[in-house]
Each structure stands twice: as structure tokens, then as C-alpha cells.
Amino acid sequence: MITLKGEYIYLRALEPEDLDFIHTIENDESLWEVSNTQTPYSKYLIKQYLDHAHKDIYEVKQLRLVISNYDDEALGLIDIFDFDFKNRRAGIGILIKENENRQKGYGAAALKLLVDYCFTHLDLHQLYCNISEDNALSVKLFTNQGFEKIGLKKDWNIINGKFKNEYIFQLINK
């Protein structure tokens, strides 16, 4: 089994016990802009998702992991999406749920673990992420992990009736 453990946090697979945690995140309107969500999710739908979360990344083209501290407290989620084995690339998204757990290094530690996993175990050549132009903390997080800003998508997302630009960042495994 591959262990994704850092000094302060570890990444783990989704468990049925994560239902309430994920339900809270998916239905928190303040997080919808980050996750590109537009409608609430029922516990029923999230339970179905959890029932299928064990499927192989090569089959479902995505992987969601829980960011946990060593007190087994779930801090957030980190995702691999748009997994493209042929072209050896994938997107990455990350979310730390509570404000008081942000800017403490948990996101950076989780991102480093996931990047290492993607390049070492999945043999990916490149990773990318999409970040709203005004999300300075995420820009800093990904930049500090070596991601480069490679473009700006103008008027990409509409949030509260206003269009917002979105950056695309990329990290190529040298």
C-alpha cells in the first residue's frame, strides 16, 4: 500500500464515515466558487459517490483524498481530476475546510504529497490547476510548489452576477 504521509498531515482514501464532512463542504455556498459548484448535493448522492470512491483512477479518471492531521481530524480534500493517462497529465484541486486551518502549511504539505504521488506512482508528465484571479492564497500555494502561471482565461466564471478571470497554472515533471 502506498503511504501518503507527511510530517503534520497524511492523505487517505474516502471512507463511508466522511459522508457528513463532504456533505458540509459540498453544501457550503462560500466554497462553491472554489469547487465550481452551483447547486447543493443531497446526502443520498454523496453516499452513492462514496460507494463508488474505491474505483480505480484509470477507470473513473479522478481521485479524491481526505487531508487529515495525526489526530485523525479531516481538514480538507485534495483531488486529481481529468486524469489523462495517454497524455500523462491531470488537474489538481485542493480545499482546506475551516478558515482557522488555512495558512498553517497543511495545504502545502498535502499538495507536495500529491504532486510526488502523481509524478512517482502515476508516472504523470504534467499537472495543472485553475485558480480564480482574485484567489491570492491559492496562487501563492501553487506558485510556492513550483507551478507556473501559463495563461489567463478572461471572463471564465460568473460569480454573483459578475464575470471573473481564471488563471491556469502548470507543473511539468522535469
TrEMBL record:
EC number per UniProt: 2.3.-.-
Signal sequence coordinates: none
An annotated Gene Ontology molecular function: acyltransferase activity
InterPro entries: Acyl_CoA_acyltransferase, GNAT_dom
Stored Pfam families: Acetyltransf_3 (PF13302)
Key words of the record: Acyltransferase, Transferase
Protein's UniProt keywords contain Transferase: yes
SUPFAM superfamilies assigned: Acyl-CoA N-acyltransferases (Nat)
Domain N-acetyltransferase: 9-165
PANTHER family (UniProt xref): GNAT-FAMILY ACETYLTRANSFERASE, SPERMIDINE N(1)-ACETYLTRANSFERASE
Protein name according to UniProt: GNAT family N-acetyltransferase
Source organism (scientific name): Lacinutrix iliipiscaria
